[in-house]
C-alpha cells in the first residue's frame, strides 16, 4: 500500500512530508512511522538470528551469513541488514502472487494441467521430484509459466523520467512519475493473438520470445531498476510448478448438485496484485 501512488496524497506531493505531524491531514506520518518500525524489526530480526547462529556454529549458508563470514569486515552491518531484507521482501509477495495465479489457472484450465503433468511424468517418472536442473527439459511446463506471467503479471511498474523527453507528442518533464501498464503490454492483441485466452502453446509456436515479447522479461521490469531476482524467481517458480504438477491435481470444488464451482478470477488492486480468494481442491496424485 505504501508504494501505491494513489493511496496517499504525499506520494504525489512529496512536499507534504515536510509539514509537522500535528497539522490536520498528517495521519500518513503516523502510518509511515508504524510501517518503518515494522520494517526495521524485520531487518533486525533476520540479522540477529543469523548472527546468533554464526556464533553458535549452527548457521546455514545465506546472504547474511556469507557476508559476515566469507566477507567479514567488508560491508557495513546496516548495508547487509537492509540489502537482505530488500531481497526477501522483493521476492516474497511477488512469488506468492504468481504461484496463486498458477493454482487459479490450473483450476480454470484442466487440459493445460493434464498436458503439463504428462510432460513432467515423462521426464521424471513417478518417484523423483523435479529439481532446478530439470527446468530446461520441460518446454511445455515452462510455457505454462510464461503464460501465467503474461495473463496475470504480479506487479505494474512505476518509473521516474530521468530527463525531459517527448513521447508521442506529450512533453514529459524530468522527474515525472510514469506508470507502465505491464498488463496492457502483455495483452496487446497485435502481439499476442487472442490475449485473453490462456494458451501456453503460443510460446512454442509463435516466435514470441524472438520478437522481444517474452512475458518473463516484461513482467520483471526494464532498464537499470529491472528485477535483480529474475533468474532466481524463474527457477523457483518453475520448480514449484513442476513439483506441484508431479504430486497433485488441482480441480474446482463441487457444489451440492455435483457441478464444478468455477472461480471468477478477480484480482485485488494495489502494487502487487493477487487473485481474490477462491476455492479449489488439491488432491495427491499418488497414494500417500
Ligand atoms: C515472481 C517473481 C517476481 C516478479 C514478478 C518481480 C518483479 C519485479 C519488478 C517489476 C521490479 C521493479 C523493476 C523496476 O522498477 O523496473 C522488481 C524489483 C525488485 N525485485 Fe523482483 N520480482 C520477482 C521476484 C523477486 C525475487 C525472488 C527477488 C529476490 C531474490 C526479487 C528482488 C527484487 C529487488 C531487490 C527489487 C528492487 C530493485 C531496485 O529497486 O533496483 N524479486 N521486481
Task: Write a structural description.
This protein is mainly alpha-helical. It has two domains: 1-75, no CATH class; 93-284, Cytochrome P450 (Cytochrome p450, Orthogonal Bundle). Helices cover 45% and strands 9% of the residues. The chain has ten helices and eight strands. It has helices at 9-12, 27-56, 63-69, 77-108, 110-124, 139-151, 182-185, 202-205, 215-218, 230-247, and strands at 157-160, 165-167, 170-172, 177-180, 248-251, 253-254, 260-261, 281-284. The chain has a two-stranded antiparallel ribbon. The protein has a two-stranded antiparallel sheet with strand order 2-3. Strands 5-8 form a two-stranded antiparallel ribbon. Helix 4 (77-108) packs parallel to helix 10. The longest helix has 32 residues, at 77-108. The two termini are 41 Å apart. The model has no long low-confidence stretch (mean pLDDT 91). Protoporphyrin IX containing FE binds next to helix 4 and helix 10.
Secondary structure blueprint with pairings:
Elements lengths: L8 H4 L14 H30 L6 H7 L7 H32 L1 H15 L14 H13 L5 E4 L4 E3 L2 E3 L4 E4 L1 H4 L16 H4 L9 H4 L11 H18 E4 L1 E2 L5 E2 L19 E4 L4
Antiparallel strand pairs: 1-4, 2-3, 5-8, 6-7
This protein binds protoporphyrin IX containing FE.
Beta strand count: 8
Query: Which radius of gyration do the C-alpha atoms yield?
Result: 22 Å
Multimeric state: single chain
Bound molecules: protoporphyrin IX containing FE
Annotated CATH architecture of the largest domain: Orthogonal Bundle
CATH superfamily of the largest domain: Cytochrome P450
Q: How many structural units, i.e. domains?
A: 2
In helices, the fraction of residues equals 40-55%
Strand order of the largest sheet: 1-4
Structural class: mainly alpha
Instruction: Give the helix tally.
Output: 10
Runs with pLDDT <50, length 5+?
Answer: none
Which band does the percent of strand residues land in? 5-15%
